[in-house]
Amino acid sequence: MESLLVPLLMLSLVWATSAGSFYENFDEAWGGDLAKILNNGQVLSLSLNRASGSGVKSKSQYLYGKFDIQMKLVPGNSAGTVTTFYLSSLGSTHDEIDIEFLGNLSGQPYILHTNVYTQGKGNREQQFYLWFDPTKDFHTYSILWNPLTIIFSVDGIAVRQFKNLESRGIPFPRSQAMWLFGSLWDAEDWATRGGLVKTDWSNAPFTATYRHFAAQACVRKQPSQTCSSSSWLNQDLDISGQKQIRWAQKHYMVYNYCTDTKRFPQGLPPECSFN
Ligand SMILES: *[C@@H]1O[C@H](CO)[C@@H](O)[C@H](O)[C@H]1NC(C)=O
User: Which segments of the protein form a coiled coil according to its record (predicted)?
Assistant: First the structure.
């Protein structure tokens, strides 16, 4: 009995873990050896030194999906560094859905920076502090993108929604398939306190670690596409999700473009009346 059970168990483990393999899902996009896939494909390590950052790009292009990843961010003095997990198409009218982490001096809080681009136009930043130290442990960061909505979550807690308001004339990313990217790069000219705090290269190389990649998604295979199990495809923010967003905004929000009347003297972007 025992001898039968063990191989069966091992088989299911192998199957479950290979579903999230970085080898199977990503290619090195830049940075050469600074982007490393380790532990049989289970771990991605991205590094940044003075010469270069590093990044990976998904093998597939997705048109909608629910993407989860665990990340452990650059520890210590990470000022000036930006660690990312984002979706993007290409070209001047590209769409993009961003999660970026802006590093900070030791002991100072990281900022979770989010943005949504439609047809080449972004300027929809919302920023949050986290309620934990993202350099101590792995935490799960998620993007849900379906025809109804885009939802950003941290450890399963929704922090931001960008609704599909096309019926009100507001563009929504829905026709351009996107690649998924992970990257670590230097942005000392703006990342930390608006560029006031520069990168301390004596701490280089900086390293961030990713694991437990999971995607339920529609994969573009020209000329058609195939979708994995699809309950996420019509998932919308429920009452508890709305509560979570109110909680995150109340306690952790650093910046919201929808309240920045100085930046938009002509009037706030139209979606701000609804989101
Ligand atoms: C870094 O720490 C300072 C001081 O606590 C804070 O004002 C800032 O928002 C933090 N984050 C970034 C990315 O600058």
Answer: none
In this prediction, residue 226 carries a pLDDT of 86
Does the annotation count 100 as an active-site position?
yes
Residue 12 pLDDT: 37
* Cis-peptide into 223, omega within 30 deg: yes
Low-confidence ranges of the chain (pLDDT < 50): 1-18
CA 138 / ligand 1 centre spacing (Å): 21
The amino acid sitting at 55 is G
Q: Provide the pLDDT for residue 10.
A: 42
Does residue 271 have an active-site annotation?
A: no
- pTM comes to 0.92
Domain ranges of the chain: 20-273
pLDDT score of 150: 98
- For residue 170, report the distance from its CA to the centre of ligand 1, in Å: 32
> Would you say 184 and 46 are in contact if contact means Cβ atoms under 8 Å apart?
yes
Atom 13 in ligand 1: residue holding the nearest Cα: 192
Give the pLDDT confidence score for residue 7 in this predicted structure: 43
CATH topology of domain 20-273: Jelly Rolls (2.60.120)
Number of C-beta neighbours around residue 39 at 10 A: 12
DSSP assigned state of 229: S
Residue identifier of the C-alpha nearest atom 9 of ligand 1: 193
Q: Which amino acid is at 106?
A: S
The reply to whether ligand 1 has any atom less than 6 angstroms from the CB of 108 is: yes
